[in-house]
Amino acid sequence: MLEAQATNITEEVVREIVREEVQRAFKKDPAKKKMVIISSKGTLDWAYPPLILATAGAAAGMDVSVFFTFYGLNVIHKDFERVLKVSPVGNPGMPMPMPMPDIVTALPGMTSFATGMMKRKFEKKGVAGIRELLDVAVESGVRLIACQMTMDVFEYGQDDFIDGVEFGGAAAALSEARKGHVTLFV
Amino acid sequence: MTAIQENKLLDARGLLCPMPIVKAGKEIRSLEDGEIMKILATDRGAIVDFPAWADDTGNELMEWHEEEDGVLVFYVRKVEEED
User: Which of A8, A165, B19, B68 is deepest in the core (most CB within 10 A)?
Assistant: First the structure.
Protein backbone atom coordinates (compact mmCIF):
# COMPACT_ATOMS: atom_id res chain seq x y z
CA MET A 1 0.00 0.00 0.00
CA LEU A 2 2.71 2.43 1.03
CA GLU A 3 4.78 1.49 -1.98
CA ALA A 4 1.86 2.14 -4.30
CA GLN A 5 1.35 5.61 -2.81
CA ALA A 6 5.04 6.37 -3.07
CA THR A 7 5.12 5.66 -6.79
CA ASN A 8 2.16 8.01 -7.32
CA ILE A 9 4.09 10.98 -5.97
CA THR A 10 5.54 12.52 -9.06
CA GLU A 11 8.12 15.29 -9.11
CA GLU A 12 5.34 17.66 -10.10
CA VAL A 13 3.34 16.84 -6.99
CA VAL A 14 6.38 17.33 -4.77
CA ARG A 15 7.12 20.67 -6.40
CA GLU A 16 3.54 21.78 -5.86
CA ILE A 17 3.65 20.84 -2.18
CA VAL A 18 6.97 22.65 -1.70
CA ARG A 19 5.62 25.75 -3.48
CA GLU A 20 2.58 25.84 -1.21
CA GLU A 21 4.64 25.39 1.92
CA VAL A 22 7.10 28.11 0.91
CA GLN A 23 4.25 30.52 0.13
CA ARG A 24 2.65 29.78 3.48
CA ALA A 25 5.97 30.42 5.23
CA PHE A 26 6.42 33.74 3.40
CA LYS A 27 2.92 34.80 4.37
CA LYS A 28 3.72 34.21 8.01
CA ASP A 29 7.18 35.81 7.86
CA PRO A 30 7.25 38.01 11.00
CA ALA A 31 9.91 40.28 9.45
CA LYS A 32 7.27 41.62 7.05
CA LYS A 33 5.61 43.21 10.04
CA LYS A 34 8.64 44.86 11.54
CA MET A 35 10.06 48.28 10.70
CA VAL A 36 13.02 50.04 12.22
CA ILE A 37 13.83 53.66 11.44
CA ILE A 38 16.90 55.60 12.49
CA SER A 39 16.06 59.29 12.71
CA SER A 40 19.23 61.41 12.68
CA LYS A 41 18.11 64.86 11.50
CA GLY A 42 17.00 67.65 13.81
CA THR A 43 15.19 70.03 11.49
CA LEU A 44 11.45 70.53 11.10
CA ASP A 45 11.37 69.18 7.54
CA TRP A 46 13.32 66.03 8.41
CA ALA A 47 11.21 65.34 11.47
CA TYR A 48 8.35 64.43 9.13
CA PRO A 49 9.57 61.40 7.11
CA PRO A 50 10.36 59.10 10.06
CA LEU A 51 7.12 59.99 11.85
CA ILE A 52 4.99 59.63 8.72
CA LEU A 53 6.46 56.23 7.87
CA ALA A 54 6.26 55.05 11.47
CA THR A 55 2.59 56.00 11.90
CA ALA A 56 1.62 54.63 8.47
CA GLY A 57 3.41 51.36 9.31
CA ALA A 58 1.65 51.10 12.67
CA ALA A 59 -1.67 51.74 10.91
CA ALA A 60 -0.94 48.75 8.68
CA GLY A 61 -0.34 46.57 11.72
CA MET A 62 3.44 46.80 11.77
CA ASP A 63 5.55 46.70 14.86
CA VAL A 64 7.62 49.90 14.54
CA SER A 65 10.65 51.22 16.41
CA VAL A 66 12.24 54.59 15.76
CA PHE A 67 15.74 55.29 17.08
CA PHE A 68 16.55 58.95 17.52
CA THR A 69 20.22 59.73 17.37
CA PHE A 70 22.33 62.88 17.07
CA TYR A 71 20.15 65.81 15.96
CA GLY A 72 17.20 63.44 15.59
CA LEU A 73 16.82 63.75 19.36
CA ASN A 74 15.18 67.14 18.67
CA VAL A 75 12.12 65.34 17.29
CA ILE A 76 11.27 63.79 20.67
CA HIS A 77 12.55 66.69 22.77
CA LYS A 78 9.89 68.03 25.15
CA ASP A 79 10.35 71.40 23.53
CA PHE A 80 10.20 70.13 19.94
CA GLU A 81 7.91 73.00 18.89
CA ARG A 82 10.79 75.38 19.56
CA VAL A 83 13.84 73.30 18.67
CA LEU A 84 12.62 72.00 15.31
CA LYS A 85 13.38 74.66 12.73
CA VAL A 86 14.13 74.79 9.06
CA SER A 87 16.71 76.96 7.35
CA PRO A 88 17.03 77.89 3.69
CA VAL A 89 20.82 78.18 4.14
CA GLY A 90 22.58 75.59 2.04
CA ASN A 91 19.25 74.22 0.86
CA PRO A 92 18.65 75.32 -2.74
CA GLY A 93 15.80 72.79 -2.91
CA MET A 94 13.63 74.74 -0.51
CA PRO A 95 10.81 76.54 -2.32
CA MET A 96 10.88 80.26 -1.45
CA PRO A 97 8.15 82.82 -2.18
CA MET A 98 10.65 84.72 -4.35
CA PRO A 99 14.09 83.94 -5.79
CA MET A 100 16.72 84.77 -3.19
CA PRO A 101 20.52 84.98 -3.41
CA ASP A 102 22.25 82.52 -1.04
CA ILE A 103 23.73 85.34 1.03
CA VAL A 104 20.26 86.70 1.85
CA THR A 105 19.10 83.34 3.20
CA ALA A 106 21.85 83.64 5.82
CA LEU A 107 20.60 86.96 7.22
CA PRO A 108 19.44 87.06 10.85
CA GLY A 109 15.79 86.11 11.20
CA MET A 110 15.68 83.99 8.04
CA THR A 111 15.52 80.70 9.96
CA SER A 112 12.48 81.75 11.99
CA PHE A 113 10.93 83.20 8.83
CA ALA A 114 11.41 79.95 6.92
CA THR A 115 10.22 77.88 9.90
CA GLY A 116 7.06 79.95 10.28
CA MET A 117 6.46 79.77 6.55
CA MET A 118 6.72 75.98 6.51
CA LYS A 119 4.46 75.56 9.54
CA ARG A 120 1.78 77.84 8.07
CA LYS A 121 1.98 76.17 4.67
CA PHE A 122 1.68 72.66 6.14
CA GLU A 123 -1.21 73.68 8.34
CA LYS A 124 -3.03 75.35 5.47
CA LYS A 125 -2.65 72.24 3.32
CA GLY A 126 -3.93 70.03 6.13
CA VAL A 127 -0.70 68.16 6.89
CA ALA A 128 -0.62 66.77 10.43
CA GLY A 129 1.69 68.64 12.80
CA ILE A 130 4.64 67.05 14.60
CA ARG A 131 2.63 66.99 17.85
CA GLU A 132 -0.21 65.06 16.22
CA LEU A 133 2.17 62.58 14.58
CA LEU A 134 3.99 61.99 17.88
CA ASP A 135 0.64 61.48 19.65
CA VAL A 136 -0.48 59.00 17.00
CA ALA A 137 2.87 57.21 17.17
CA VAL A 138 2.70 56.77 20.95
CA GLU A 139 -0.98 55.84 20.84
CA SER A 140 -0.44 53.22 18.13
CA GLY A 141 2.42 51.54 19.97
CA VAL A 142 5.40 52.86 18.01
CA ARG A 143 8.51 52.52 20.19
CA LEU A 144 10.41 55.80 20.39
CA ILE A 145 13.97 55.14 21.48
CA ALA A 146 16.54 57.84 22.26
CA CYS A 147 20.23 57.11 21.69
CA GLN A 148 21.89 57.25 25.09
CA MET A 149 25.35 58.05 23.75
CA THR A 150 24.29 61.21 21.89
CA MET A 151 22.14 62.20 24.86
CA ASP A 152 25.25 62.10 27.03
CA VAL A 153 27.31 64.05 24.48
CA PHE A 154 24.64 66.74 24.10
CA GLU A 155 24.04 66.68 27.86
CA TYR A 156 20.39 65.73 27.70
CA GLY A 157 18.70 63.99 30.62
CA GLN A 158 15.81 61.55 30.35
CA ASP A 159 13.48 64.34 31.54
CA ASP A 160 14.27 66.36 28.42
CA PHE A 161 12.14 64.04 26.29
CA ILE A 162 8.42 63.54 25.81
CA ASP A 163 6.62 60.86 27.81
CA GLY A 164 6.87 57.33 26.50
CA VAL A 165 10.44 57.59 25.17
CA GLU A 166 12.75 54.64 25.87
CA PHE A 167 16.53 54.77 25.98
CA GLY A 168 19.05 52.51 24.30
CA GLY A 169 22.14 52.07 22.20
CA ALA A 170 23.42 50.72 18.90
CA ALA A 171 23.06 47.08 19.91
CA ALA A 172 19.39 47.64 20.78
CA ALA A 173 18.82 49.29 17.39
CA LEU A 174 20.52 46.45 15.53
CA SER A 175 18.77 43.79 17.53
CA GLU A 176 15.45 45.21 16.35
CA ALA A 177 16.64 45.93 12.80
CA ARG A 178 17.83 42.38 12.13
CA LYS A 179 14.30 41.11 12.74
CA GLY A 180 12.64 43.42 10.23
CA HIS A 181 12.58 43.71 6.45
CA VAL A 182 12.04 47.46 6.55
CA THR A 183 15.03 49.33 7.93
CA LEU A 184 15.50 52.98 7.08
CA PHE A 185 18.08 55.59 7.95
CA VAL A 186 16.72 59.13 7.82
CA MET B 1 -23.39 49.83 -9.80
CA THR B 2 -25.07 48.24 -6.81
CA ALA B 3 -24.64 50.27 -3.69
CA ILE B 4 -22.55 48.59 -1.00
CA GLN B 5 -23.99 48.90 2.48
CA GLU B 6 -21.30 49.91 4.92
CA ASN B 7 -21.18 49.20 8.66
CA LYS B 8 -19.01 52.21 9.33
CA LEU B 9 -18.23 55.49 7.60
CA LEU B 10 -14.83 57.15 7.89
CA ASP B 11 -14.67 60.73 6.70
CA ALA B 12 -11.01 61.45 5.92
CA ARG B 13 -11.71 64.39 3.63
CA GLY B 14 -9.18 67.21 3.94
CA LEU B 15 -6.58 64.97 5.58
CA LEU B 16 -3.20 64.35 3.98
CA CYS B 17 -0.79 61.43 4.17
CA PRO B 18 -0.43 59.56 6.49
CA MET B 19 -3.61 60.55 8.35
CA PRO B 20 -6.23 58.81 6.12
CA ILE B 21 -4.33 55.53 6.59
CA VAL B 22 -3.75 56.20 10.29
CA LYS B 23 -7.49 56.80 10.84
CA ALA B 24 -8.44 53.77 8.74
CA GLY B 25 -6.04 51.56 10.68
CA LYS B 26 -7.56 52.75 13.94
CA GLU B 27 -11.22 52.60 12.91
CA ILE B 28 -11.14 49.17 11.27
CA ARG B 29 -10.19 47.64 14.60
CA SER B 30 -13.74 48.20 15.86
CA LEU B 31 -15.24 46.19 12.98
CA GLU B 32 -16.05 42.49 13.02
CA ASP B 33 -14.74 40.07 10.41
CA GLY B 34 -16.60 40.65 7.13
CA GLU B 35 -17.97 44.08 8.06
CA ILE B 36 -17.48 46.95 5.65
CA MET B 37 -15.97 50.40 6.14
CA LYS B 38 -16.64 53.19 3.67
CA ILE B 39 -13.88 55.80 3.49
CA LEU B 40 -14.15 59.27 2.01
CA ALA B 41 -10.87 60.98 1.13
CA THR B 42 -9.58 63.93 -0.86
CA ASP B 43 -5.86 63.10 -0.68
CA ARG B 44 -4.92 61.98 -4.21
CA GLY B 45 -2.21 59.77 -2.72
CA ALA B 46 -4.99 57.64 -1.24
CA ILE B 47 -5.64 56.14 -4.69
CA VAL B 48 -2.38 54.24 -4.37
CA ASP B 49 -2.18 54.11 -0.57
CA PHE B 50 -5.47 52.35 0.22
CA PRO B 51 -4.88 49.40 -2.15
CA ALA B 52 -1.36 49.03 -0.70
CA TRP B 53 -2.63 49.29 2.86
CA ALA B 54 -5.39 46.75 2.19
CA ASP B 55 -2.90 44.37 0.65
CA ASP B 56 -0.53 44.70 3.62
CA THR B 57 -3.20 44.25 6.25
CA GLY B 58 -5.07 41.45 4.49
CA ASN B 59 -8.29 43.47 4.38
CA GLU B 60 -10.15 43.50 1.10
CA LEU B 61 -10.51 46.67 -0.95
CA MET B 62 -13.84 45.81 -2.55
CA GLU B 63 -14.26 48.84 -4.75
CA TRP B 64 -13.25 52.45 -5.11
CA HIS B 65 -14.33 55.32 -7.29
CA GLU B 66 -14.13 59.07 -7.60
CA GLU B 67 -17.25 61.18 -7.19
CA GLU B 68 -17.95 64.10 -9.51
CA ASP B 69 -16.78 66.56 -6.85
CA GLY B 70 -13.39 64.80 -6.68
CA VAL B 71 -14.07 62.96 -3.40
CA LEU B 72 -12.56 59.46 -3.44
CA VAL B 73 -14.73 56.68 -2.05
CA PHE B 74 -13.26 53.37 -0.88
CA TYR B 75 -15.02 50.28 0.44
CA VAL B 76 -12.90 47.99 2.59
CA ARG B 77 -14.09 44.67 3.98
CA LYS B 78 -12.42 43.61 7.19
CA VAL B 79 -10.67 40.27 6.99
CA GLU B 80 -9.54 38.92 10.35
CA GLU B 81 -6.01 37.61 10.25
CA GLU B 82 -5.65 33.89 10.65
CA ASP B 83 -2.84 32.72 12.87
Answer: B19
B19 and A133 Cβ atoms separated by less than 8 Å: no
CA-based nearest residue to A172, from A84, A59, A65, A18: A65
Nearest CB among B22, B56, B57 relative to A136 is that of B22
Mean pLDDT of chain B: 92
Q: Which amino acid is at A91?
A: N
**DSSP code, position A151:** H
Question: Which residues neighbour A126 within 8 Å (Cβ) at sequence distance 6 or greater?
Answer: B14, B15, B16
Per-range mean pLDDT, top range of A38-47, A95-104, A166-175: A38-47
Whether B82 and chain A come into contact, CB under 8 Å, resolves to no
Assess A56–B contact: CB distance below 8 Å, yes or no.
yes
Kindly list the residues from chain A whose CB atom is less than 8 angstroms away from the CB atom of residue B37. none
**Cα–Cα distance between A66 and A50 in angstroms, integer?**
8
* Nearest-angstrom CA–CA distance, A61 and A114: 36
The minimal CB distance from A127 to the residues B16, B21, B22 is found for B16
B45 at A interface, C-beta within 8 A: no
Helix then strand count (H, E) for chain A reads 9, 5
Neighbours of B9 (CB within 10 A): 10
Output the pLDDT for position A5. 61
